[in-house]
Amino acid sequence: MTDYLVNATGLKKSFGATCAVDDVSLRIKAGEIYGLVGSDGAGKTTTMRLLVGALLQDAGEVSVCGYDILKQSEQARSQIGYLSQRFSMYEDLTVLENIRFFAEIRGLSATEWLPRSMEILEFVGLGKFVDRRAGQLSGGMKQKLGLASALVTRPRLLLLDEPTTGVDPVTRQDFWQLVIKLVSQPLSPTPLPQGEGQGVREQSEGVSVLISTPYMDEASRCHRVGFMKAGKIIAEDTPSNLRARLNGRVLELRGSPINVLRHVAHQDEDVEDVAAFGDKLHVRIRADKSDLIINRLPDEIKAAGGTITNLRVIPPALEDVFIALSESSHD
Amino acid sequence: MLNSRIFSIIRKEFLQIVRDPRTLAMIIIMPIMELFLLGYAATTDVKNISMAVWDQSKTTQSRALLDAFRAADYFVLEYFVGSADEYQALIESGDTRVVLVIPPDYDRRLVEGNAQVLMVLDGSDASVGSTALSTARLVGQAYSTKILGEQSQLSGRGAPSAPVEVRTQVWYNPDLDSAYFNIPGVIGMILSFITSILTATTIVRERERGTIEQLIVTPIRSWELIVGKLMPYVILGFIETFEILLIGHWWFGVPIRGSAALIIITSGLFLMSSLGIGLFASTMANTQQEAMMTVMMFNLPMIFLSGFFFPIAAMPKFLQFVSLAIPLRYYLIIIRSLLIKGVGFVAIQSEVIALVIFGIVIMGAAALRFRKRLD
User: Fold this and answer.
1) CA distance to partner chain A, nearest, from residue B216 (Å)
2) Furthest C-alpha separation in chain B
3) CA atoms of A52 and A50, how far apart (whole Å)
4) Please, which residues have CB within 8 angstroms of residue B374's CB and are 6 or more apart in sequence?
5) CB nearest to A92's CB, from B5, B20, B373
6) Would the CB atoms of A101 and B20 count as touching at under 8 Å?
7) A19 has which bridge partners?
8) Could you tell me if B63 and B77 are in contact, meaning their C-beta atoms sit under 8 angstroms apart?
9) What confidence tens digit (pLDDT) does each residue in A168-181 have?
10) Which residues of B fall below an 8 Å CB-CB distance to A?
11) ipTM exceeding 0.85, yes/no
12) Who's near B295: CB < 8 A, 6+ residues apart?
């Protein structure tokens, strides 16, 4: 057995002429939350589908908990809980019927499924809605149902494909609290009637989560983050290490008029990029040029008829890193 | 082991069927509708043909001839006209299809032994026309023989016998009631149409709604998924078979002469073909609509070439050859023989073998194409 719950090497997948996933290798440790970020079409969903074996890769290998996803798919899949981007519960079945169905086809016995389902539905906050048809749930509740269904067999690996896209901020917050709770203090194992079967396993280490998201605030909650672009993981590290790559290279600029500030900043030869964050600008500069620019920029702006209220070096946000990485491979 | 995973799928499938009013209506009401449509409207029995008469003779003899036509049960003497223009108008308007013209000298020539009457037929509807034609000939012949006999008796020579007399025995369906032929056919049609459409759409629906992605990631095996998805439709197919059999028997009086076990077994074999076609179509479609069209593409030519509407023996050689690859053809022979003739296994064994081969081939091909994957 390896130390990695997920061990994928050299994954490749093309659809016709488009290469959706290009030589992706991914390792996820037990108890880790791994975030896969990248813009739309970067290959996040395809990567996830390859990891669960929903798509057949052109090259590369995937093992989950030491089982090859293609050759030992049954064993591997019994360790996986997967929440697809698209709602994929049965809308004409109730919440409980959905959970029961997925619990049973994933091997829970007649005596196990009900207490387990109720426990998990309480956990995600759907305890009061067991008899509601899934099609009549709100967007956030649908996602929670999907999460509950993925969790009902207590998988060791949870794959969540953009679970919070299109969900309101409060529900997003709730959702993340659930994920974090899951990793830090896993569901207490219910004492089973027959103390055996696949329900019993080393719960102490918690589950591993692979989550894809377009939101940087969510990425910063992950233990490790992989940036995907054009089918490749172009950077992979902890959020703080990733941010550290731009230490001293991001300036915050406030003043007016904002168009003038932006234009002038862009003209500066040591400025790489200017991005608007509400009423302020994030100016990304070349390494070791901060002092130079902080001295130079105010004069340039004054000359152009603008005023500066604030210009200082700030700790980079993950979003700055993301934008920098997105541009880096253009050249 | 017919394991709990398969049972879970079957139960889920039934829940969905029960909650979908459209599917439910298709399953319960469609067989009854088709049964009554084909039992009544699609009857090829020609009876009560409207007939016009131009009796120029107006004698006891001519009235006796008209009585002979009335007694035949095929004609209703609706119009009595006085000119050729009148009956032509009746035929043109479609009010009548047959006209009997009795000449003024009918009674005189009858005595001379060379009486002639004219029968005018509307041939635009070939099936009505040909029935009317042959019936009119038969009535005329029988009437002639009868008169001949009467004349001989009058002249004291005793009743002569015709040189050749054809005596007929109609087996199994003495009244030649077309319901006997159609209703077993409806069973075949329902089994092939409804079950193949339902299986194709139920599988494609999982793909269309995205639920297949969740199913793929469960440890369930492909064959378990197939069996679980098909099982409910096997059960429904049998329920429909019994439904049609019972209504056909009690309402339309179609006999059930063969063994129930053989009917069930052969229907099950035929179901395998229909489900196979549905499963195969599902592997070629991405939306329910596409699935429906694909199934129709298989089913329509099958219905026409199966011998359900048109006798295979009357088809050109090439189409007869094509029809050999159509499972419904064999099932129609089997179910008609079992119900109406009450034959045993030996009489239908080659058709049963053909069904088994077709079922295995199409199921096998479909199962090979069926992938528990998204691409």
Assistant:
1) 6
2) 98
3) 5
4) A49, A54, A55, B212, B213, B216
5) B20
6) no
7) A14
8) no
9) 888 888 889 888 88
10) 4-5, 7-9, 11-12, 15-16, 19-20, 209-221, 373-375
11) no
12) B196, B197, B200, B277, B278, B281
Of the candidates B11, B214, B375, which has its C-beta nearest A102's C-beta?
A: B214
Token couple for B151: 């004349």
Q: Model's pTM, two decimal places?
A: 0.80
A:B CB pairs within 8 Å: 85
Tell me if A53 sits within 8 A of A62, measured CB to CB. Answer: yes
Rounded to the nearest 5°, which phi and psi values hold at B63? Answer: -65, -35
Residues in chain B closer than 8 A to A92 (CB atoms): 15-16, 19-20
B373 vs A107: CB contact, 8 Å cut-off?
no
Which residue blocks in chain B are alpha helix, DSSP H? 4-19, 21-36, 60-71, 84-93, 106-112, 126-154, 178-209, 211-217, 222-250, 260-282, 288-305, 317-323, 327-336, 345-369
* A75, B201 contact by CB (below 8 A): no
Q: Burial code of A235-253, b = ≥16 C-beta within 10 A, e = fewer?
A: bbeebeebbeebebbbbeb
Q: How big is the CA angle at B228 (ends B364 and B208), to the nearest 5 degrees?
A: 85
Tell me how close the Cα of B29 comes to any Cα of chain A, in angstroms: 22
Nearest beta carbon to residue A56 from set B9, B220, B375: B375
Cβ–Cβ < 8 Å for B183, B254: yes
Q: Which of A46, A105, A131 to mutate to test binding with chain B, by most B CBs within 10 Å of its CB?
A: A105
pLDDT tens track for A185-202: 655 554 444 434 444 344
Q: Name which of B211, B220, B374 is nearest A90 (Cβ-Cβ).
A: B211
Residue A168: name the closest of A141, A146, A148 by CA.
A141
pLDDT digits (tens, 9 = 90+) for A130-161: 999 999 999 889 999 999 999 898 899 999 99
Is residue A213 within 8 A of residue A219, CB to CB? The reply is yes
Output b/e per residue, B286-315; b: 16+ Cβ within 10 A.
Answer: eebebbbebbeebbeebbebbbbeeebeeb
Distance from CA of B207 to the nearest CA of A (A): 10
Within 8 A of B19 by CB-CB distance, chain A residues are: 92-93
Residue A146 · residue A178 · CB < 8 Å: no
- What are the pLDDT digits (tens) for A231-253? 999 999 999 999 999 999 999 99
- What is the helix (H) or strand (E) element at residue A60, kind and residue range? strand A59-64
Angle at CA of residue A319, ends A313 and A321, nearest 5°: 70
Asked whether the beta carbons of residue B5 and residue A73 sit closer than 8 angstroms, the reply is no
Hey, what are B269's tokens? 């074999």
Give residue-wise pLDDT tens across range B280-330: 999 999 899 999 999 999 898 998 899 887 888 888 999 999 999 999 999
Looking at residue A1, its pLDDT comes to 47
- Min Cα–Cα distance to chain A from B268, Å: 27
Residues in chain A closer than 8 A to B221 (CB atoms): 74
**Chain A CB contacts of B13 below 8 Å:** none
